[in-house]
Amino acid sequence: MKPPEGRTSWKKAAVVAVPALVAVAAMAVGMAEGVLASSFAVSGAAFKVSSGELSSKGLASYVHVDRSADGGGHPVALLGIGDATLSDICQSAQIGTPVGTVVFKLTAGGKAGEVRASDLVIDSEDLVGDAAFGRVEIGRDASTLDAVPGVRGEAGQFGLQASEVSVSRVRSHARSATGGNFKLKGLALNVDLNGEACF
């Protein structure tokens, strides 16, 4: 029977709406669990990240290309960190303004207590420090990585992972960082003209 004109056929609407709602719900749950990284255009410049000590259960990495708003590509090492503890953290970015170079700086941890992060994904241009790995696998196909849930690349890509990692004197230039959960004790945010960067 044909529904009267101007009325909604709820059965037909449900056939279209239910699959869409299921897909949206699955994506929301996936992002909440760190399975999917949220996608956004990165800024034109890298920022600095440092920590005295970082330890994590689970590490996975492969090569990735970040895209900026102007369409430019920036090759990075995507670092997936499962369950991390940091002695402290410093993040700084130098930004040109009409009044001069401003340093946007965020610090946490140290005397205030440890910083904790889970499902942390850092798109890094470089990473230096003294590191120790547990059960490391270098050269594993990026599509088969399983040390950090949801952090996998494309088939055939070079990947590496470890069951655990500890890095001291961490220094990195990064393009982006996203995390499922981030607990920052003693958070301090400063914006200073000609301020001091993390390193």
User: What would you call the structural class?
Assistant: mainly beta
Indicate the proportion of strand residues. Answer: over 45%
Order of helices and strands: HEEEEEEE
Quick one: how many beta strands?
A: 7
Question: Overall mean pLDDT score?
Answer: 83
Main sheet record? 7 strands, antiparallel
Quaternary: single chain
Q: What is the molecular shape? A: globular
Assign a percent range to the helix content: 10-25%
Indicate how many domains the architecture comprises: 1
Topology:
Layout: H1 10-32, E1 47-67, E2 73-86, E3 88-97, E4 100-109, E5 115-141, E6 158-183, E7 188-193
Antiparallel strand pairs: 1-2, 1-3, 1-6, 2-5, 3-4, 4-7, 5-6
Task: Describe this structure as you would to a colleague.
The protein has 199 residues and is mainly beta. It has one domain. Helices cover 12% and strands 57% of the residues. The chain is built from 1 helix and 7 strands; from the N terminus they run H-E-E-E-E-E-E-E. The protein has one helix spanning 10-32, and strands spanning 47-67, 73-86, 88-97, 100-109, 115-141, 158-183, 188-193. Strands 1, 2, 3, 4, 5, 6 and 7 form a 7-stranded antiparallel beta sheet that branches. The longest helix has 23 residues, at 10-32. It is globular, with a radius of gyration of 21 Å. The termini are far apart. Residues 10-38 have low confidence and may be disordered.
